[in-house]
Queue: 2 jobs
Job 1
Amino acid sequence: MRHLGRAVLLLTLIIWSTGNGQTKKDLKNKIASNSRLFKTNIDKAYIELNPLLKESQQLKDTLSELKILDRKCRYFYSKNILDSLIISSEKLQKKSAEYHYAYYEAMSNVYMAETYSMNKFYDKAIKYLSSAYNLLQKENPKSEKIFYAKANVLNSFANIYLDKKQPENAAKKIIEEIQSGNEIADPEERNRFQYLNYSNLADIYTQLNVDSAYHYAKKSIQLKAKNSPDDQSMITNYSVIGHYFTTKKNMKKPFPIFKRLFLSIKIMVPNLI
C-alpha cells in the first residue's frame, strides 16, 4: 500500500478506490445478468458483450474480460459460425496465457478442437483437447468447475473418436469419466453424473458388444433419480434395451420397451409425433 503525506490526496484516492471498486462490482452484476439472458435470448445477450468487454478492459478486470471472451466463443459455437469462433478462440487463448488463467486457456483449446472437429480434422481436434486436458490437470483438483471442465473434455474426446469410427477409444474416455465420478462427494449429484455417463457408454457399446450395452443401460436406469421425468438419456437407454432384445430375437420384450420409448419422445417433443 502506498504511504501518502497529504490528507487531501489520501481522501481523493479513497474516493477513487471506493468508486472503482463499486464499478467493478457493477460490472460483475452486469455479467451475471448477461449470463442469465444468454440462456433465454442468446442473440440479445451477444449484443451486450462488446460494451461489457470494453468496460472490463478499462477497469483492468482481467477475470471479467476472460469471462466475456469465453462467452463470445460460446455464442459463435452455438451459432456454428466457425470463422468467428476461431478468431475469438485465439483471442481467448492469447489473453488467458497473458493473464495466467489456465482454465480459460484450456477452454480456448476446447473451442479450437470443436472447430477442427466440425471440419473433420479429427487428429488436430484431439491435439487441442489433449492440450486442454493437460492445462486443467494443473489446476485445483478439488474445484467443481475444473472437475466438470475435465469431464466435458473427456466427453468431447469420446465424440471425436465416434466420428472417427473408433468406438473402443470413445468407450475408454467415457469409462475414464465414470471413474472420475467417484470424486463427487454428494451421492445425488454423483448419481446424476453417472446416470448420464452410463447411458452414453451403453450407446457406444451397441457398436461393440450388445450384452455390455444392455448392462450399462440398466445401470443408468438404476441411477436415475426417482420421480424425475424421462429425458434424452432415458430415450437412449430404452433404445439400447430394445435393440438388445431385438438382437436376441426375443420379440415379446421389445414391445413394452419401444412403447416407453415412444411415450418418452412424445412427452419431450409433443409436436414431433
Note: The radius of gyration is 24 Å.
Job 2
Amino acid sequence: MRNALSRVLIATASTAAIVSVSACASITPTDTQQRGPTTAVVANADPRPVADNPAPQLPTTVRSFDGVDVTVNDVSRIVTADRYGTLTETVFALGLGANIVGRDTSSAFPAAKAIPNVTPGGQSMSAEAILNLAPTVVLTDTSIGPKSVQDQLRAAGIPVVYFDPTRTLEGVPGQITAVAQALGVPAQGAELVARTEKEIADARAMIPADADKPKIAFLYMRGPAITMMSGPGSGADSLIEALGGTDAGIASGLTQPFVPITSEAMIAASPDVMLMMSGGLASIGGLDGLAKVPGIAQTPAGINQRVVDMSDTMLLSFGTNTGQVLQALAGAIYHPDAE
C-alpha cells in the first residue's frame, strides 16, 4: 500500500483469515466461470528466520531514508514501527526477532504478539512508551508518526533509522537489504533477498501462460463510509500484475491510486475478481454488504460472487513473506476449489 492510501485513509489491522488455499496441478482456464468467495491464507504467518541469532557487524553507519546518516552501535533492543508490520517481519526473518522489545499494531503474527505494542491506537507512537523500553535502535518510516515523537527519540540519543514508506513488489529486495545493513547483518540480508525472490518466482510459475487473464479490482473498505477502488500507484497494481491479472481500475481509466466507488466507475471496471482485505470485507457485512455497494452487483465478479480476501496485515505488506502471499492468492484466484 503506497503513501497515497496512507494520506487518505486510516487503516486498521485485522487478522481475519480462516480458510486455507493451496495450489494444485489442474486449473480452470476461465475465471469468469468460477463462482463464490475464497479466503487466501499463508499456512504459517510467522516469518522464517534465515539464521539463528546472527552476530551483527557493528558499528554500522547507514543513510536513513530522511537523508540523515545514522550510526548503530547496538541492536540488542530494537523497536520496529510502521503502518504495515513490514519492519518487524523483516527483523524476525533476519534472525533477530528475539531482540525486538517494541512493535507496531500491524505486527500481529503469532511470534510477535507477546512483544509490547508501541502503537496501541494503531497509527500513533508513544514517546513515553518507547523510551520506557530503553531501545538501542528504532526502525521506522513516515507511514506512522507523529514525526514529533520520532524527533524526540532522536533528541534523546536513540538511533532512529527511517526506511522507504512505499510498499511495492519491486521494492521488496531493497527494503530487506536496507534493514539488514542497518542492523549489521548484510550476509543474512543477501540470503533473505535470494530466498524471497525465489519464492516470488515460484509463485509466478503457478500461473499458466494459457490461462485467461482475469480483470482484478482491489477494493479498500472500512465500513459503508469508506469504499474505494484502486488505480495506478496503489501498490495493489504490482500485486495484480504479478498474479497474471489486469488491474480493472487502471483498465477502466482511473488515474489516481484510490478513488471512491461509484456505480459508473465499478461498472466500467467490470472486474472478474474482487480482491479485498478480510477486515474490510467484514466491515461492510461480508458478501451481503458488498452486494449493496453501488455497481458491484452489476459486474461479473458481483454476479459470480468472485471475491478473494486476505488478512489485512499480509495482503499489501510487501515483506519477506511476499512469495507466500502471492502463492496463496494465486491458489485462491486460479484454484478456488482446491483442498
Note: The first strand starts at residue 38 and ends at 40.
